[in-house]
Amino acid sequence: MKRKPFLFFILFLLQAGLFAQRSVQGEIVHEQTGERIAGATVSTSISLRSVISDKNGKFLIDISDADSLLVTVTGFEIRKIYPADKKYLTISMTLLQKELEGVVVTGTMKAVRRSESPVAVEVYTPQFLKKNPSPSIFESLQNVNGVRPQLNCSVCNTGDIHINGLEGPYTMITIDGMPVVSSLASVYGLFGIPTQLIDRIEIVKGPASGLYGSEAIGGLINIITKSPGKAPLFAANLMTTNWLEHTVDIGLKIKPGKKISSLLGINYFNYQHPLDKNKDQFTDVTLQHRISVFNKLSFERKKNRVATLAARYFYEDRWGGDMRWNRMFRGSDSLYGESIYTNRVELIGNYQLPVQEKIFFSFSATSHDQDSYYGTTPYRGKQKTGFAQLIWDKQAGMSHSLLAGLAGRYNYYDDNSTATMDTLTGLNNPDNYVIPGVFLQDEWKLHTKHLLLLGLRYDHHPVHKGIFTPRLAWKWSPKERQTFRLNAGTGFRVVSLFTEEHAALTGARAVEVKESLKPERSYNVNLNYTWFKKWEQVSLNIDASAWYSHFTNQIIPDYDTDPNKIIYKNLDGYAASKGMTLNLELNKGHRFKSLIGITIQDIEKTELNDQGRKLKQQPVLTEKWSGTWALTYTIPALRLTIDYTGNIYGPMRLPLLSKTDPRPASSPVWSIQNIQFSKLLNTKLELFAGIKNLLNWTPAKNTPFIIARSHDPFDKKLEYDGNGNILATAENPYALSFDPTYVYAPNQGIRFFGGLRLTLK
């Protein structure tokens, strides 16, 4: 009997221990896809007791003596969880931030870690593009700081990409490093690229002519496609809007042979619902019917040598104009319409030679055929380009990494305009020339913290002869994840007016070329600073740049001297582009992500007037400042993601017809803002919906009209004086002619969109 109190005491202790023991169970999931993660280690912070999540991502762990859990898995950020009184946990894991260590190729034409690149390269992934889904890469780039899609025609809605305030022809567009987007296609090159095939977009701001040649005078946008071996089996993105714009984007992986992988992409866009909400009798948005088919083949070779071949076919039928217009009026003076048929074929290849040295042969070829009418003005242009490049990548000792190359560019261009007419004989004289080039680059590792890049390129143009473009870059990393980059170099571009300036084709203004146009030349310096810091739940990335570009010659269309003309001539003076840009990326935990950017710039040209005085002028359609943002908030328990994106632009000078033109001489501050809700149903299917242009802003709200005299597009009711000047009349009180060149922003108001994303691995 004496033993009973002791036994009761032992049982009491055991019972108390059982009640004190506490377990928690849960699941580990991928934050973005919702996929269950197997093999994750879940451990307590005090006793280091740990378990491994099973094939379904499930786990059960005793947390009696701990107030927190530590979750680790390869490729994901470490998570610290405080369970409190919860009995079941759903733990979302965020992919490890590898942007600083990601591989880039655009800055030096060879694969290097982004943190090691002496040239500042901005990288944008498909996840960034999904934040504001759009039917083309052209529209998607509106949320990239310092990059602005610019509409150049309020009727046909063609446009180009401005980088740091410089117009579209100064930006080279490449696919997998090959310049497939020729000057004739500069306004269409970013349409129709299947987004399901895009691995990332790399952007270099500032001249890259020292490595890529002509057209890379202002910047470079390199669209890098996925490797067929790493792409999902099937991916689709379907989207529609209440304006009845329909987009289909599909990617499909095929295995046609044992050592051949194929990646097929299809992009289809259809908009056939004309609207005239600003009541000017013209379509607000161009009607479009577009299809693009892209196929990339990858061949398995010994020693993992590279061999790829890709082809793309692009067709588009677009028109805008009088709401009553149809195809029977094409080219007539009854109803005004701008109708453009485009057929385009591209071929891209990359082959690593079967030798011990790293030698690559790459090539691209394009054929562009355009059949257009701008009212009664026909434009039929054909351009064929070929580009071939042989690169030798050589490591010379421990300190030098050399890159040497031979390049050749072939260009054929013909149209029905005066651009290809012999002024002496009046006969057709198409452009037909070859530009050979050679370049050399040395990356010299001076110290563990210092890297110097020296480069030189020489091109020989049949008319302009030899063109040298040197470049220099210096990278200094005083501390880990803190880097300064200084880049300096020259740029050049050979101008082709009619292939780039579609305002010259509308027939509203006569084109006058005053003299033989010389190549554009520039000198550029860019200073970039990056800093990355990560705390327990917060990460901050700062990317700041300041630049200055000096043009000794620049061909800028003159809309001001004569309201009835667009005048082109060499620059009698100089032009300059200077400014600074700042990107802030702030992420908190696995729920909140943000990217905010601001650009301040000053672009102007300085010329001598008839009295020999210097006159400074800001080019048209160039903003003084701009900003962009992309804010993302994720609710893991609901598998719901909210994206709020937008941009804002400061005033820009606009092209007026005359001093009596009542339209504003400069644009107001304007902003396009969007919101999207994405719901992940399972690992394969995601639904999304949202609103574009939340503020319902259009340029028509700030001006009495956008298109001058849209009711008289063929100028049949104009009256002139003896000198050919337009007279002010009761019917035409401002003495204007038809003019669709007054455009600076999209004319499309608020609209709702929705769609789905399907991925099969």
Could you give the topology of this structure?
Layout: H1 3-20, E1 23-30, E2 41-44, E3 50-52, E4 58-62, E5 69-72, E6 79-81, E7 88-93, E8 103-104, E9 112-113, E10 122-124, H2 126-130, H3 137-140, E11 147-151, E12 159-163, E13 171-175, E14 198-205, H4 209-212, E15 219-225, E16 234-241, E17 245-257, E18 260-271, E19 287-299, E20 307-321, E21 337-352, E22 358-374, E23 377-396, E24 400-415, E25 431-447, E26 450-461, E27 465-479, E28 482-493, H5 497-500, E29 510-513, E30 520-534, E31 538-553, E32 565-568, E33 573-588, E34 592-608, E35 614-617, E36 625-635, E37 640-649, E38 670-680, E39 685-692, E40 751-760
Parallel strand pairs: 1-7, 13-15, 29-32
Antiparallel strand pairs: 1-4, 2-3, 2-5, 5-6, 8-9, 10-14, 11-12, 14-15, 16-17, 16-40, 17-18, 18-19, 19-20, 20-21, 21-22, 22-23, 23-24, 24-25, 25-26, 26-27, 27-28, 28-30, 30-31, 31-33, 33-34, 34-35, 34-36, 36-37, 37-38, 38-39, 39-40
How does this structure look, described?
This protein is 5% helix and 50% strand. It is mainly β and 761 residues long. It folds into two domains: 18-93, Carboxypeptidase-like, regulatory domain (Immunoglobulin-like); 225-760, Beta Barrel (Maltoporin, Chain A). Strand 34 (592-608) and strand 35 (614-617) form a beta hairpin. The longest helix is centred in the first third of the chain and has 18 residues, at 3-20. The protein is globular, with a radius of gyration of 30 Å.
